[in-house]
Amino acid sequence: MTHTPPPSRLLSRRSWPEARFLADVLRTETVGGALLLLGAVVALIWANSPWRAGYAELGHWVPWPGGAALHLDLSLRTWAADGLLAIFFFVVGLELKREFVAGDLRDPRRAALPVIAALGGMVAPALIYLAVTLSAGGAGLRGWAIPTATDIAFALAVLAVVSSHLPQGLRAFLLTLAVVDDLFAITVIAVFYTADFHPLPLLGALLPIAAFGLLVQRRRTWWWALIPLAVTAWALVHASGVHATVAGVLLGFTVPVLRGRDGAPGLAERLEHRWRPVSAGLAVPVFAFFAAGVTLVGVDVGGVLSNPVVIAVAAGLVLGKVVGVFGSTYLLARFTRAELDEEITWADLLGLALLAGIGFTVSLLIGELAFGAGSPEEDGVKVAVLLGSLTSALLASVVLVRRNRAYRRISERENRDADGDGVPDVYQGGAA
Q1: 297 bridge partner residues
Q2: What gap in Å lies between CA 228 and CA 216, rounded to an integer?
Q3: What transmembrane ranges does the database entry give (predicted)?
Q4: Is 420 among the domain residues?
């Protein structure tokens, strides 16, 4: 009699140390998401107020003129997109390295779901975007990647408001999905949105990146050496024509992940803990402030909303992400005998797929790269990203609020600590 192996479980709970690390990440990103929303709201109000000219002038102000030879005569808006977002992508690089070395992505079986879901969540929105724009004559095809991104900070901020008891396995999946999504977004930016490529500065950037990597591999965390090396690498990547934020990812990849023999956190985890608040609390909100301010005064709103690019971006975020994330997960379960973890339902996954349609930071960045800063097309992209993200957030809220009572029961069971040892019983071998 042959023994049939039990079906694998999708979105199962992580280990207790991994769960604690995830909780710290979620808290920081949730606060960052709230600040991101605040920055976007302030920008929208200012850009549509009687003082809107001041908002535009602030964004175009060049604080350090005379740096044209080094490609550094940048406006505040460009410094926010190219400079501050490099910090965000440095943290993304640390996350990716950690996930591939010590997290879920090191196990091909556990990595399959977030990778496939992230791919589906990029392919489906891109196809919807292309279908809409091609049916309208093909204008705006360059923006096909705009609806493919997921903003984890924005999504977690919404999640914190509507439901604080989401099952841990699902929260972990949302974070891992966003990390993989960021990896694909970085690749898309580097490959498809690089103009006027200059190979020599890019080759030159390898030297400070290598020196940075050599120091961190030897655990030499001298800020007076690492920060100048990082800035030099950033400047050279920027001069090469490749988007400068790629430098942040490459620097993050050089940092070692594994813990020490005494169980102390690895350097990647320590640097992530140190720089994530800067990314979530400063870099992303400031970028949102300069990127989200679209002026609608005197604009034909009906004409903007009927623009094929606007429709394509909004449809890609709202419909494409749901079809891609939910559909790919369902197909994976359908054809591999895998089942959802017993604490998670398909309704939960639907809510998460809707949350994935909140594409803000990277979507706005790709819109600027695709159509040019200050162009009429970029203003339409801003409207579409805001509209699509808010619609996704509202739909996700409707689904997740209905599930909140069930989440609370699950959370109470997970947090039960009958023996008082500080570790929830559910993470111990004998737990029921």
Answers
A1: none
A2: 14
A3: 21-47, 79-96, 111-132, 144-162, 174-193, 199-216, 221-237, 243-259, 280-299, 311-333, 345-371, 383-401
A4: no
Question: Looking at the chain, how many residues does it have?
Answer: 432
Q: Which residue has the higher pLDDT, 71 or 149?
A: 149
Q: Is 316 domain-assigned? A: yes
pTM: 0.79
For residues 37 and 157, the answer to whether their CB atoms sit within 8 Å is yes
Task: Calculate the alpha carbon distances from 395 to 104, 122, 241, 275, 315 in Å.
Answer: 29, 19, 39, 32, 13
Residue 430: the pLDDT is: 46
Residue 344: CATH number of its domain: 1.20.1530.10
Domain that holds residue 22: 9-59+76-193+243-413
Q: Which helix (H) or strand (E) holds 10?
A: strand 9-10
**Across the strands, what pairs with 9?**
339
Per-residue model confidence as pLDDT tens digits over 339-386: 666 667 888 889 989 999 998 888 988 998 888 877 878 888 989 999
Query: What pLDDT is recorded for position 389?
Result: 92
Q: At what angle do helices 16-47 and 52-60 cross, to 10 degrees?
A: 120
- Number of domains, the chain: 1
Quick check: is 382 in a domain?
yes
Find, among 351, 349, 332, the residue nearest to 8 by Cα: 332
406 — pLDDT class (breaks 50, 70, 90): low
User: Contact at 8 Å (CB) between 50 and 62?
Assistant: no
Q: Exposed e or buried b for every residue in 237-272, given b needs 16+ CB within 10 A? A: bbbbbbbbbbbbbbbbbbbebeeeeeeeebbbbebb
Average pLDDT over the chain reads 81
CB 193 within 8 A of CB 366: yes
Residue 291 lies in a domain: yes
